[in-house]
Amino acid sequence: MKNNLKNLTLTAMFLALGMVLPFFTGQIPQIGSMLLPMHLPVFLCALICGWQYGLPMAFLLPLLRSMLFGMPPIYPTALAMAFELAAYAFVSGYLYENSKWQCVKALYKCLCAAMIAGRIVWGIAQMLLLGISGTAFTFQAFMAGALLNAVPGIAVQLMLIPAVMAALNRAKVLPFKHEMKQTAGSMANS
Fold first, then answer.
1. Would you say 20 and 61 are in contact if contact means Cβ atoms under 8 Å apart?
2. DSSP per position, 86-137
3. pLDDT(31) > 80
4. Phi, psi of 45, rounded to the nearest 5 degrees
5. CA distance linking residue 85 with residue 67, whole number of Å
6. d(Cα 47, Cα 36) in Å, to the nearest integer?
7. Could you tell me which of 93, 87, 121 has the C-alpha nearest to residue 106?
8. For residues 58 and 100, is the Cβ–Cβ distance under 8 A?
9. Given this model, what pLDDT does residue 24 score?
10. What is the value of pTM for the model shown?
11. Separation of alpha carbons 153 and 33, rounded Å
């Protein structure tokens, strides 16, 4: 019960952070869309609290932000982002939670897999949503939105998220999990 309350509180904090961070980069829309400020709290929530908390928070974040502040526009941007961010949270949280070791190397593997999965989900969502309105979603648009325009944000995520997780490990707030090493006695018994 205590752990659930802690995770719910942290999830609410990450949701609030996701609502506020775009204000710091949103004054210049080109920079804001390149730095991907809503992605950081989504990844951190999934890695710290687990995918069970990160996924619903990630799905609600762009929709709630769109309803409250009008940005991102609800259709198709916020809707596609909801699926994209949910995929990031699920993949990164699930893989990290089930990782043999929790360390910086495992973080990079989980983040890279989640970034690929999330961008594929975003592309499929964009294609379906734009198809409903009769607008084509080209491969060039996918590459521009999923990769080329996102390179600065991807770089920030790959630097900042492992740094935060390593700092939490060093502070013993959220220690990395390592596989139990077999002792000589337990090896002799097998």
1. no
2. HHHHHHHHHHHHT-SS-SHHHHHHHHHHHHHHHHHHHHHHHHHHHHHTT---
3. no
4. -60, -45
5. 17
6. 18
7. 93
8. no
9. 87
10. 0.89
11. 8
Q: Measure the CA–CA gap between 41 and 56, rounded to whole angstroms.
A: 13
Tokens 């940005």 locate to 71
Residues 6 or more apart in contact with residue 10 via CB below 8 angstroms: 45, 48, 49, 53
- Taking the C-alpha atoms of residue 131 and residue 64, their distance in angstroms, rounded to an integer, is 24
pLDDT above 90 for 185: no
**Residue 74: HSE in the Cβ half-sphere, 13 Å Cα cutoff:** 8
Place of tokens 């996102």: 150
| pLDDT for 29 | 67
Average pLDDT along the chain: 89
Q: What confidence score (pLDDT) does residue 139 get?
A: 83
d(CA 64, CA 16): 11
Query: Quick one: average pLDDT of 152-170?
Result: 95
Phi then psi for residue 159, to 5 deg, are -90, -45
Residue 82 to residue 57: CA distance in whole angstroms: 9
Residue 177 CB partners (closer than 8 Å, separation 6+): 99, 101, 102
**pLDDT at residue 65, rounded to an integer:** 97
Tokens of 10: 């942290």
What residue type is assigned to position 84 of the chain? E
As a dihedral over the C-alpha atoms of residue 86, residue 87, residue 93, residue 97, rounded to 10 degrees, the angle is: 140
Tokens of 110: 């989980």
